[in-house]
Every structure is written in C-alpha cells, then in structure tokens.
Amino acid sequence: MAKERIILGIDPGTNIMGYGLILQKGNKISLIAMGILKLGKYDNHALKLKKIFERTLSMIDEYNPDEMALEAPFFGKNVQSMLKLGRAQGVAMAAGLYKDLPIFEYSPKKIKQSITGNGNASKEQVAAMLKNLVQFSSAPEYLDATDGLAAAVCHFFQGDNTEQGKSYNSWKSFLKDNPEREGKR
C-alpha cells in the first residue's frame, strides 16, 4: 500500500509568512497550494502573531495535513529580529500542536541542501528546483511561498528518516530538547 499524506510547510516570518502544501502518494508529490500571509500592514507584533496563529489553524482546518514542517530560525546578529522570528515560529508550531499535528523542524541549510544539493543555495535556486519537482507554472511574486513549500518538500525527502528533523507532538517534548526556550525560572 502506497503511503499517502499531506504535508504543510511553513517559513515563519513577522512581515511575510510563506507556506506550501504537498500531497505525497507513494514516492510522488504534487502541489496542493502555496502562498504567503502578508503581515507588514500590522504595527503591533502581538497582532501579527495572532494572524499567524489564525492563518495556520485555518490551513490545517481547510487542508487537513498529516504533518507540519517548519523552517527553524537561524542565528543572526540582531537579537530583536531573532526573538520576533522565534515567536512567529512558536505560534505556527502552537497551532499545529493544538490540532495534534506532528511538527518537524529543519534548518535553512538542511532545507536548501535537500532541495538543491547545496546548503548555500539562493532563494531563486530553491524556487527553480521546486518548480521542476512539483510542477508549478510560474514562480510566485514572493519567494517566501517557495521557502514554505521547500520545508514541506524537505520533509518528504526525509521519508521515514525523520531524525534529520526534530519532531514534537507536545510542548513538553519541544521544551525537553530546547530548555533555553522555556524562559528563566
């Protein structure tokens, strides 16, 4: 029996969140949807987080994915940006956990490596490779959409070898691997 599942991929962001959904049937994948959530018009960071949470929940309700793959925040020099990005990832993750979805995290380098064979590939190179892999006609206006799709396709490529990404089915299991994220006691 061929494995069939829907994977939701998310590239969290506080100005633009990218997402992509794929259907896996056996060893074949096809595009269900991809797009972005624009958040730049909201001044309030808490409101942006609420919109990310709501949009993620609505996608889960609409497409009923079996698993969620997220791009993990990369470490940058701007601590304030990292904090905001981590919060964006956290609320997307919370929406998945709320709906009992298994969550998998992949580093940007791992995603690029998985899609293009080069962990330092550009967003444009990733988009071009995805265009061939999942057969969409034209690249979206914002490459955040293909970044979200890339997270889903990366997860597909892991197959049953998901120890490459980290899976969490509860906040407790997430905090066990990430104690520094819990906050100071």
Describe the secondary structure blueprint for this structure.
Elements: E1 4-11, E2 16-25, E3 28-38, H1 45-63, E4 67-71, H2 79-98, E5 103-106, H3 108-116, H4 123-134, H5 143-158, E6 166-168, H6 171-177
Parallel strand pairs: 1-4, 4-5
Antiparallel strand pairs: 1-2, 2-3, 5-6
Helix pairs in contact: 1-2, 3-5, 4-5
Structure notes:
By secondary structure, this protein is of the alpha/beta class. It has a single domain, classed as Nucleotidyltransferase, domain 5. The protein is 45% helix and 22% strand. It contains six helices and six strands, in the order βββαβαβαααβα. It has a six-stranded mixed sheet. A hairpin with a 2-residue loop joins strand 2 and strand 3. The longest helix has 20 residues. The chain is globular. The model has no long low-confidence stretch (mean pLDDT 86).
The Cα radius of gyration reads: 15 Å
Q: Largest sheet, described in full?
A: 6 strands, mixed
Characterize the overall form.
Answer: globular
Number of E strands: 6
Provide the CATH architecture: 2-Layer Sandwich
Poorly predicted runs are none
Which structural class should the secondary elements be placed in? alpha/beta
Q: Largest sheet, order of strands side by side?
A: 3-2-1-4-5-6
Helix content: 40-55%
